[in-house]
Design a protein that fits this description.
With about 350 residues, this protein is mainly β. About 5% of the residues lie in helices and about 40% in strands. A hairpin with a 6-residue loop joins strand 4 (about 60-65) and strand 5. The protein is globular and about 50 Å long.
């Protein structure tokens, strides 16, 4: 039986769906603990009030969401983050970075646009200038939103996806009250960056993920000390009709030879018949690598059961669109740099 890995995209907006926040309780439970390492760009600086003059290339996130123990309504949050420059040879921050602690109330809101069932968690909803919002991907993943309610694209080193640590509380509003987020339907071959003329390239997606789970899914041997995988996926199309043609996959698991083959667009997963899936035929016993669309800039890896894969505090299972097309992601510098994202600040990313 073929094993499949999937990646998911979504577009999002919101509408408040819960009534006024419930009174805070010192005994509220702790259903959600989410961690991540993300880029530090102009948008995330603005959201977190990080000074423009501060040395900041990465942000390490630790978000705790509490529910009222009686009503299960959203209650209070604790957000601790550290920002600074990457410490070479580690996944840490130089000299410990700058630490910031935030506390307040959070609430759940619903999308008002293309995804009527999408759920968003908003911190400090009563303070628009200070509010920070996350798209709920599933029980285990949150993704940071910008001020225009769009998913924040990351770069080749880090993404804006927060992964749950610990066991999900199945009684939380995410699963007990609100429907799961859905992938948008519509044109599945429309790139976020305009295709110039007769270019056959639909898009290039890069990122770093944890190592062992994906290597196992793809039946690729890795060393015992492998902690991360680098990825560069190029999707090609027929410029005349936008029909998918071939793909090229580079990175840690494809150092000697790039993975190449055909790809197609299919619809549906076991939980969402309208999901848009990019199916990469692997030409090996593993069968196919599936990439489920989230929005035009972001793909989420899914496991063999069709569930988004939860990362850790250092890396997520997220790929980000880039327009900095490198010839070799495992080149002499061993570094993927410059996110090249529209509306983002390009920054050189030292290899951690």
């Amino acid at each position: 039986m073929k094993r499949m890995v999937v990646v998911k995209l979504s577009v999002l907006l919101f509408i408040v769906i819960s009534p006024a926040s419930q009174p805070s309780s010192p005994d509220s439970t702790l259903p959600g603990m989410f961690v991540a390492t993300s880029p530090c760009d102009a948008v995330s600086r603005s959201l977190l009030k990080i000074p423009e003059t501060a040395d900041c290339e990465l942000i390490k996130w630790d978000l705790k969401l509490h529910h009222d123990p009686g009503t299960r309504a959203s209650d209070r949050y604790e957000l601790n983050y550290v920002y600074g420059l990457p410490r070479q040879g580690t996944n840490g921050v130089t000299q410990g970075g700058v630490r910031v602690e935030r506390k307040g109330k959070w609430t759940a809101v619903r999308s008002t646009k293309a995804i009527p069932d999408a759920v968003v968690y908003r911190l400090d909803p009563d303070k628009p200038q200070d509010s920070v919002s996350f798209q709920v991907i599933d029980d285990n993943l949150l993704h940071l939103l910008d001020r225009d309610d769009g998913l924040m694209p990351g770069n080749a080193a880090w993404s804006y996806t927060l992964s749950r640590i610990g066991t999900p509380d199945r009684r939380s509003p995410n699963t007990a009250v609100f429907p799961a987020s859905r992938v948008t339907t519509g044109s599945t071959t429309s790139p976020a960056l305009p295709v110039i003329g007769d270019s056959p390239v639909l898009g290039v997606f890069v990122g770093r993920s944890p190592c062992r789970d994906l290597a196992t899914e793809l039946n690729k041997p890795v060393s015992d000390d492998c902690t991360k995988l680098k990825w560069e996926l190029t999707l090609y199309r027929d410029p005349g009709n936008d029909i998918p043609t071939t793909y090229k996959l580079k990175g840690t698991l494809y150092r000697e030879r790039a993975g190449e083959g055909r790809w197609v667009i299919v619809k549906g997963t076991k939980t969402d018949p309208d999901a848009v899936v990019y199916q990469l035929n692997l030409n090996n016993p593993q069968g196919a690598l599936l990439l489920l669309k989230a929005d035009d800039n972001i793909l989420f890896f899914l496991d063999g059961e069709g569930n988004p894969m939860a990362g850790n505090g250092d890396f997520s299972y997220t790929l980000n669109r880039t327009n900095d097309v490198r010839r070799d992601v495992e080149g002499p510098s061993n570094a993927l740099h410059k996110s090249g994202m529209p509306g983002r600040v390009d920054r050189s990313i030292p290899a951690p």
